[in-house]
Write a structure and sequence with these properties.
Chain A: It comes from Leucosporidium creatinivorum. The structure holds two protein chains of two kinds. By secondary structure, chain A is mostly beta strands. Helices cover 9% and strands 39% of the residues of chain A. By secondary structure, chain B is an all-alpha fold. Classes of the chains: A mainly beta, B mainly alpha. Chains A and B meet through strand 42, strand 45 and strand 51 of A and strand 1 of B.
């Protein structure tokens, strides 16, 4: 008997072994992090390239070895340096999203000069190998800033043009050497150009109807004094199609403006006098019209590329006073290199030229789908012994346009390892957000950068489960008693099927836990395996011909009879005729099975199938403007019908709106310490709207019914909020969490407001006495020093496990705060016995920063935008997927792993003990029986 | 195949009953019945004190003691009620073969009618009920009785509200940067 109780006690204790935080040894097994930088941004052809190889060195010695880094600027406003051989991120800097165009240039090997800010108004120098800021300056906003490297023999300085004038900046210290005001305000586009060794110019290209069209301020670079101001009247230069190229005249380098005017290539030498523009001679021989001039990063060497209307291109180089136009592709015939035999950067042309493609990142509609090959033609200007004039070489590489989209950006570097070959390294990106690096014709790495732009709600599918558990499993549809009983019986039988798992499930072929994410901007769908560190199982690129992609269209699972589940998405083919197309992909392989284009009648039938619900026609979405919210029905796929509009009181504005996700709720009430019940207010149509009133400088939260726009309840006003306070909201079931940065300059704290909503009916009357319209809101406010921002809550399979609130903090970490700490019923007094029974903590205003709550550990998850949670395989588990720029995934157990045996549980010992005890029982039973009979016979 | 001691016992009993006077026997029966009826009454305050001292927590020992208390009270009511007073009723000579064998004279004092034991039985039952009440009070203080709404929460039917929001915006938030 004693043995049994000891054993039982031991088993209970081992079950309750805490699995609170991930140990250091478990990091990287449960969680994974994919650092991303975003798809490369397209740049204007006349600006210096945004993607280039930079050779950085830590020492200033001329013969120091230089490490090659790939510098790239992306649509996510990230300037990143990648290791060219592996694609690893060496460093990256994220610029605010309201600073869309950062440009970068290299004036020396050790640093990178970055021009950022809303209009190039910030100038900074970054260490080339670490990305650390060496110095930074801020200028006046309002005009596109310009920067130019100025090499003065011994020193390399930066000339910086902003709205308030030109400054010469010391390249090493960032000190201002001189500053000069611009004088008269100009409407045109300003450029900084080097005129000769001592002077530079501020070139003003005015809009077409202005006179004069071109004017130049000649400025002495040493003192910053104005030395001349020539102008030219007659020209039709467009700033978007004009390039300044350094040409190599006999008496030193000069700058020339090259532009395209009605299909002709014109040039104008910039100097003391602006002459009449001359036509570049070679362009007359070509029958085709010039479409565009392009800076390939060699304009300081007098080289640029002209693209013709027929899709061909030519390399144009400065040869003395003249211009040499090499014949169009294929390139050949460079007469002589205009410089010595030292290393020169080469030049690459991509065929097909990317200029024929749309620039907005959309998929090309009419691009020919011919051979699945891409090719580089490399025009190396590096003179070698065998080819002093440089050489033309090239590579062909496999490139599937259907799969990856079309090529949109590129960067390259090359060097001649011997006299006859050129070793090249190229970096390309495509319209579907793929980036690849090639060494010659060998693929070095491949990255899916469109994962940084996922915007559709993720769809989760556990392959091992026959039933899908995604967000569409309805909150209230299956809450009737029979279905609940069935669910519980199913859950119990599943326990017997699977047994108690002592280890995380090993990834097997059917052990996949797929999550499907989509990027509408890059028209790609990914399946990531959460059980295998977020490995990309497949990617699919949806062709632009299928229709336009609405970010509000979510991915759905189609569970058809043939046993092959499909992922589908509806695209809008034509909004006017309300025709849609339904794209279906195999959920396991990602192959596109079907693209159905259909008329409205058919599409309605499709959506009936897709929804498996009866109410397709009147689903509501929300239109949020600054001061009003409208409920809009989009029944006809794109054609909107406004159902209700709620206008805020005068001058109030909407700061944030939260829409809950459907999910299973285990209990409809909350049981208090005195065994009374608070009934949860559960309304799947409730939305939370945070508003801000500038007059009172306060904020309030409106709970609204999305079906009718009716106001259900109002929480607030909250006094210390302002419109810059980064307010965010999240709502799940009856729990609302609001975070904001406290107003006021001195305050660095953020506040977390936790609200639980209950129906305020009379407990004793039971459900019949409950008035659903009356909401009782319990609220507690906490202060956090971590700048927490609420993102979402954890989800579990049956909703029994308590939720954690998932926050992002200012350090790029994901913080999961247990509900107990955010409980609005935390006591203000010493906890009574009943409070203790309810496990209530005494209230403390400061929310502790417990390191065990940080899910991302030491990892910095950049650009965190969205955190989603899915029910794991066990009730105690919840899967978390964070996206934004980086992807981060982990598995959490908000109430500890109560349904998993601890890894140290000794099963063998249990089996041996039970066997030994059973044997002992069997043996002793017969012995005792014999003894009893013996006693009865001989001892009365 | 009974053991030989049975014969010895019955001969001893014969001698004992011969000495008993009918009047004495009846009062003795009443007295013994009262003793038996009031025996659990002493138990009630002791059990109540014990239950009070073990506290309101649900622990293995308090649960076990409550279980034994309830079991005792219920078995006292159900099983022990007829058995407790078995030695005292009018002995039916026809019911017992051993008595019939020994005494053919039905006028023997053992078979004379006696006073009823109803009062004792009622007191006994009341004591058992008091013990049961102590047990239930203890259960209630431990929260083991499903007497609250919270105990029946899982069986409550919920008011069904049709979800009207489009799935594409479910779980999303709108903020400074638009929809997330």
């Amino acid at each position: 008997m004693k043995d049994w109780s000891t054993l039982a006690l031991g088993a209970i204790l081992s079950l309750a072994a805490p699995a609170w935080a991930i140990q250091a040894s478990e990091v990287g097994r449960l969680d994974w992090h994919l650092p991303l930088i975003g798809p490369p941004q397209l740049s204007s052809p006349v600006d210096p390239p945004l993607h280039r190889f930079h050779h950085t060195s830590t020492s200033a010695a001329p013969n120091a070895s230089k490490k090659s880094l790939l510098l790239t600027y992306t649509v996510k406003n990230v300037l990143a340096a990648l290791e060219p051989s592996t694609g690893d991120v060496v460093w990256r800097r994220r610029y605010p999203s309201n600073h869309p165009n950062a440009r970068h240039l290299s004036c020396s090997a050790s640093s990178v000069i970055v021009l950022s800010g809303a209009s190039g108004s910030d100038l900074a120098s970054l260490n080339g190998s670490t990305g650390a800021v060496e110095w930074s300056l801020s200028g006046a906003e309002g005009r596109e800033g310009q920067a130019l490297c100025w090499n003065d023999g011994s020193t390399t300085d930066i000339l910086w043009l902003t709205k308030d004038g030109v400054r010469r900046i010391d390249g090493i210290t960032g000190g201002v050497i001189w500053a000069r005001n611009n004088g008269a305000e100009s409407k045109g586009s300003l450029r900084l150009v080097q005129i000769d060794a001592e002077r530079f110019g501020v070139l003003d290209i005015s809009p077409q109807d202005e006179q004069p069209a071109l004017s130049l301020q000649l400025i002495d670079a040493r003192q910053g004094s104005l030395v001349g101001q020539p102008s030219s009247a007659k020209s039709h230069v467009q700033a978007s199609n004009a390039l300044t190229v350094k040409s190599r005249a006999v008496d030193g380098p000069t700058s020339t403006l090259v532009w395209v005017e009605s299909g002709r290539l014109l040039s104008l030498k910039l100097g003391d006098k602006l002459d009449k523009p001359s036509r570049l001679a070679a362009s007359t021989s070509a029958s085709a019209q010039v479409a565009q001039v392009r800076d390939v990063g060699l304009s300081h060497l007098g080289i640029f590329v002209a693209h013709y209307e027929d899709g061909t291109a030519a390399v144009i180089t400065s040869v003395g006073e003249d211009w040499s136009v090499d014949p169009r592709v294929p390139l050949c015939g460079l007469r002589r290199p205009p410089w010595g035999s030292s290393y020169r950067p080469p030049l690459v042309l991509l065929i097909p030229p990317s200029e024929s493609l749309p620039r907005d990142g959309g998929a090309p509609a009419n691009f020919p789908r011919l051979p699945q090959l891409g090719s580089f033609q490399i025009y190396s200007l590096a003179a070698t012994e065998a080819s002093p004039a440089g050489m033309l070489t090239g590579h062909t590489f496999p490139f599937d346009q259907d799969k990856f989209g079309s090529l949109i950006t590129f960067a390259f570097e090359a060097s001649p390892p011997n006299a006859y070959t050129v070793a090249t390294r190229s970096y390309i990106s495509t319209s579907s957000g793929v980036t690849q690096a090639w060494e010659g014709s060998h693929l070095v790495w491949h990255k899916e950068e469109s994962l940084s732009t996922v915007d559709s709600p993720a769809l989760y599918w556990d392959v091992a489960e026959t039933v899908q558990h995604d967000s569409s499993s309805s909150l209230l549809a299956d809450s009737s008693l029979p279905s609940r009983l069935r669910r519980h019986v199913n859950a119990i039988s599943r326990i017997f099927d699977q047994g108690v798992q002592s280890k995380p499930t090993a990834p097997a072929s059917n052990g996949r836990q797929l999550v499907f994410v989509a990027s509408s901007a890059f028209r790609t769908i990914f399946a990531l395996d959460l059980a295998q560190q977020g490995r990309i199982v497949w990617r699919a690129c949806i062709d632009g011909r299928a229709g336009s992609w609405d970010p509000f269209q979510r991915l759905r699972m189609l569970d058809l009879d043939d046993g092959r589940p499909r992922v589908s998405i509806t695209l809008i083919k034509d909004a006017e005729t309300a025709s849609v197309s339904l794209v279906e992909l195999d959920a396991l392989t990602g192959t596109i099975l079907d693209v159905d284009s259909s008329t409205p009648a058919v599409s309605a039938a499709f959506s009936q199938v897709m929804d498996k619900q009866q109410h397709v026609s009147d689903k509501i979405t929300l239109d949020v403007s600054g001061t009003s919210i409208a409920g809009v029905s989009r029944s006809q796929f794109g054609i909107k019908t406004s159902i209700w509009t709620a206008h805020l009181p005068e001058r109030e504005q909407v700061l944030a709106v939260a829409i809950p996700r459907d999910g299973v709720v285990a209990s409809t009430g909350r049981i208090l310490g005195d065994r009374s019940t608070l009934l949860k207010y559960l309304n799947p149509n409730m939305i939370a709207v945070a508003t801000f009133s500038p007059a009172t400088r306060s904020s309030s939260v409106l709970l609204m019914n999305s079906e009718s726009g009716a106001l259900l309840h109002k929480i607030g006003p909250i006094a210390d909020v302002d419109d810059e306070s980064n307010l965010s909201l999240a709502l799940q079931d009856n729990w609302l969490v609001l975070t904001y940065r406290v107003a006021g300059e001195a305050a660095r704290a953020s506040k977390v407001v936790s609200v639980e909503l209950y129906t305020s009916g009379d407990d004793s009357l039971g459900m019949l006495g409950v008035n659903l319209e009356r909401i009782q809101a319990l609220t507690r406010t906490f202060v956090s020093t971590q700048a927490l921002e609420i993102k979402s809550f954890t989800r579990t399979k049956l909703g029994i496990t308590t939720y954690n609130a998932l926050f992002a903090n200012s350090l790029g970490q994901i913080v999961a705060v247990p509900r107990r700490f955010l409980d609005p019923r935390r006591t203000l007094h010493k906890p009574t016995k009943q409070d203790q029974e309810e496990l209530l903590l005494p209230y403390e205003a400061l929310l502790p920063a417990d390191p065990r709550w940080t899910l991302s550990h030491r990892r910095e998850v950049e650009g965190l935008n969205k955190i989603e949670s899915f029910a794991g395989r066990l009730e105690s588990e919840s899967l978390v997927l964070a996206s934004g720029l980086d992807l981060f995934g982990t598995r959490v157990s908000p109430s500890r792993s109560f349904d998993v045996l601890s890894p140290t549980f000794n099963k063998a010992q249990l089996v041996i003990t039970i066997t030994a005890l059973s044997l002992g029982l069997a043996v002793t039973r017969s012995m005792v029986k014999g003894r009893q009979v013996h006693q009865k016979w001989y001892f009365l | 195949s009974r053991s030989p001691s049975n014969n010895l016992q019955s001969s001893a009993k014969q001698d004992a009953t011969a000495l008993i006077k009918p009047a004495n026997l009846d009062s003795l029966r009443q007295q013994k019945a009262w003793e038996l009826a009031l025996a659990p009454a002493k138990n009630v305050p002791m059990q109540a004190f014990m239950m009070y001292m073990t506290g309101g927590g649900v622990q293995i020992f308090s649960v076990m003691s409550v279980w034994f208390l309830l079991k005792q009270a219920l078995s006292g009511l159900v099983r022990s009620f007829p058995l407790s007073f078995f030695p005292f009723p009018f002995a039916d000579p026809l019911a017992s073969p051993s008595l019939r064998a020994l005494h053919h004279d039905l006028r023997h004092p053992l078979f004379l009618p006696a006073r009823s034991l109803t009062q004792q039985k009622l007191v006994f039952a009341a004591c058992q009920l008091a013990l049961l009440a102590v047990g239930l009070w203890k259960c209630n203080s431990m929260g083991l009785l499903p007497t609250h709404q919270s105990d029946w929460l899982a069986f409550q039917e919920r008011v069904t509200v049709r979800s009207v929001l489009e799935e594409g915006i479910r779980g999303r938030t709108w903020g400074r940067g638009g929809w997330v």
